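Q: Can I see a sequence and its folded structure?
A: Here is a first one.
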Amino acid sequence: MLAIINGVYRMGRVELEEKPVNIPDGSRVLITFIQSDGNIDLQSRGIDKEAAGELRSQLSMFAEDWDKPEMSVYDNYDLYKVNKI
């Protein structure tokens, strides 16, 4: 059986975002670490400089909302979701 569940590695432990369903205790797992530095390679996704500029322009109308202090909760959304803070 294959089940994919997102999680976060922190202090030597993997914190799952949700509890596995129908997976018996003692089941073997494979962990794949995904490096995320916040940078996205747009060219590898077929987005050139012109298209990126157009996207930036279209999304700029949301900047005011994104910069509100209360939106900082989304900076660590995965942590909040795992810990249900």
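Q: Show me another, different protein.
A: A second, unrelated one:
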Amino acid sequence: MLEIQEPVNVWVFFQGSQIHPSYFFWHGRQIKVEKINLVHTSKNGSNTFYHFSVSSGGNFYRLRLDTSKMKWILEAVEEE
């Protein structure tokens, strides 16, 4: 995977207490999240981060939500 670390906008929906990324916007493209492959959390001090490994059209992406700033980062990309 290619490490990116770029801010992105993400559309999400909530199901109960779970957050589900639906679309994200990167380099002028709207990318539909077809599958959430893995979700985990990490902490840095009191900050909690949610990490999502998602796929779309045979490509793989890693997204991170910083809950203290409510900002999304595209961490890594593996595109064909």
